[in-house]
């Protein structure tokens, strides 16, 4: 606890950071030293310090994705010491704080690695494959207007709560980065379950799961072999139960497909 | 002459329906002949882009994010208001209208606010139909809570993640239209200018943030849904990328900017912990329902506490000052945001603040824990307590939280008429980037409502009226105005790249934020504002002569992106100062120390300042022209707010 934090002294650290000019060039690890890092800093604030330093020296700052810095937008995506979002469970990179590290540590920072997530530059990757999977069916087909009164669709609280849990996926891609097959099953299953659980999603449940899974395969994500690293590393706790729901939905859909194409 | 605000005639409750009947419609077969650009894919932009595409228009949607799902809207926690009256506790469209007008300290337009309250009910229906998992009661119907001191329970929520769920709903509707080919989505694409052809908005200039390419895009109309400008203060609860560039560029092309000094400062945020601080985290307002706000009663005790000579637990009850309960016995810890924020600043200014910086007050749950037990508290606020512990490393069950006010929301923005059209015909503004509905202070859970009202239910009607009067001929980028605008954008980018000075964009941004917070933050006065104006002008000159960038403009260059945004903040900041200086009254989030009641509360001047200040750009380094839109109140009586 701060104040009583045994680690409250500023730290000096060695960073091993992946640098890559753009999608078409080879990258490599470059070493940097950062000094006087406060344990109360967030991990990204520590990178801000490095970047300000680099820029002042006339060197290119390290590109990385971030925005809300509150653990909700899903932008931040660093692979820290071999783990997606770093050492603290249930925590996005932006919510990780330097008090989890010690003076003198060496920290390796890499981008997500997956064929479907090409590197833009340094630590920034292209996750538009996730958008295309949602475009393939991650919605209820209703137009604006003409919808019934909200309370005409009662939904048991337990179901609503489960759907909500699935819907909290932040689309960060840590599941893919943590999976040795680079499978996107946890991400896809979160959306499929949310909409399969809710009555609003029932009309299109078969085509939805078929189309989303087809798009997932097309994007080059790997197969799921039920290892579970995805759920273990997911910062918001999306559970493996969703993958079971997806598999069930998928088999049911295949058995009685509405996809006439 | 002030441009017409186009408020429809007739009784308040009938204006919108009459207007919807009177607007011109585009023939269904012709809709596909019109192209509309929507910049921004947060709540306001995604809802507009999806709805316009559903109607048949061809939409091009732009965002600087890598996906629409990342927009700042995702971070909204508390909830969304709607006058459903599901709780049978006396809510109505009129009550929501009244609360919003009063909460905004009588500086918003009656007609706009009434429409907002009217369509609020449709928003909830729409979101539920999309599969947004709002909180529910055991009977399966939707749950509500009362929020931000409202006397009725009209707030719909999805745990502490309402913005996320609403945005994912709008994103799903948008994604569906992308799949149909009706929306073309441009991600990591930053709008850097509006193109105006013969007085009408006809396109935009963008920079691809991955390749650095500058592009021209043409359309029959342009909608800006680019969010608020709270980051002019550097530190705020906004996401790091939130910026004013789109709105500011539109302003410089002729769109008036309204009430720029109206900013909201939220009382319950985690305090600054050091110079490296990059943003501030909001702790939900709901904490004030059970937490008690206090500081040591004397400066001496506070000093000993800060020096670590005593612990907070050692301070006896009689040496604690529960200042909100003391000063506002009727509302206590639940006074509105602006009042709570100002009082926290006051006690810290007196030297009674806590934490190492002295810029914090306690929010204490000891009584709630004693009364109801730790389990009860953790069930109600567990996720917030965890977040606090993660960020500060302190355990809020054992010692009180430290909180301090932080910039949160900007009520000011692009001036729009009743149709949400700016002063540039064909250019519209929706969501937080316009000024329209919140007056001088926004009520909790009303920004999400406004963004979705604008996007789902207002712009689809009002833009049709404009397009119906525009010939359905294809628009192209052939007009010389496109080349000119592109050349200007290129020149500016190259200028930024070529300064080759010594200071980073962040360095300038922090310096600007410091000036704004000190002189145009929670309390303002004429002398401070004059000083701040000179400081900003000086800082701007330094920026353009001493900025340091590396790399090139034809690749991903995040420092360059940042520099462009800071350059615009440096201009907007000065306009905010001018606006605050001009408004010789205190109202809502704008507190001028010279205009206070004897008890130190905000004192409005309805006789002289019941107007919207709409600023008109006339040229670089020239004073902007102030245009006044008089506000007419025909349905509410203006009263002084009192929370004693
Ligand atoms: C921490 C926090 C909590 C909040 N909680 C609540 C709450 O509980 N209830 C409530 O009602 N309100 C809340 N608010 C306020 C509310 O979230 C915002 O006002 C609202 O979401 C703004 O939505 P928007 O669509 O207007 O803008 P944003 O969501 O900010 O979206 C802006 C969009 O514009 C794009 N953009 C901007 N500039 C450009 C450019 N130049 N080129 C291309 N694209 C651009 C961005 O990429 C983004 O897509 C909260 C705000 C904060 C900070
Ligand atoms: S399932 Fe978890 S890890 Fe995967 S994208 Fe969603 S939030 Fe990230
Ligand atoms: S920056 Fe938004 S989740 Fe980390």
UniProtKB/TrEMBL annotation, chain B:
Domain FAD-dependent oxidoreductase 2 FAD-binding: 35-448
Lipid bilayer topology: Peripheral membrane protein
Active site: 337
Keyword Heme tagged: no
Keyword Transport: yes
Cofactors demanded by this protein: FAD
EC number: 1.3.5.1
Matches recorded under PANTHER family: SUCCINATE DEHYDROGENASE 2 FLAVOPROTEIN SUBUNIT (PTHR11632), SUCCINATE DEHYDROGENASE FLAVOPROTEIN SUBUNIT (PTHR11632:SF53)
Cited NCBIfam families: PRK07573.1, sdhA_Bsu
InterPro entries: FAD-dep_OxRdtase_2_FAD-bd (IPR003953), FAD/NAD-bd_sf (IPR036188), Fum_R/Succ_DH_flav-like_C_sf (IPR037099), Fum_Rdtase/Succ_DH_flav-like_C (IPR015939), SdhA/FrdA/AprA (IPR030664), Succ_DH/Fum_Rdt_flav_su (IPR011280), Succ_DH/fumarate_Rdtase_cat_sf (IPR027477)
Stretches assigned to the Fumarate reductase/succinate dehydrogenase flavoprotein-like C-terminal domain: 509-643
Localization per Swiss-Prot or TrEMBL: Cell membrane
Any one GO MF annotation of this record: electron transfer activity
Family under the similarity heading: Belongs to the FAD-dependent oxidoreductase 2 family. FRD/SDH subfamily.
Protein name: succinate dehydrogenase
Gene Ontology CC: plasma membrane
Catalytic reactions of this protein: a quinone + succinate = fumarate + a quinol
Single Gene Ontology BP annotation: anaerobic respiration
Main location: membrane
Keywords, alphabetical: Cell membrane, Electron transport, FAD, Flavoprotein, Membrane, Oxidoreductase, Transport
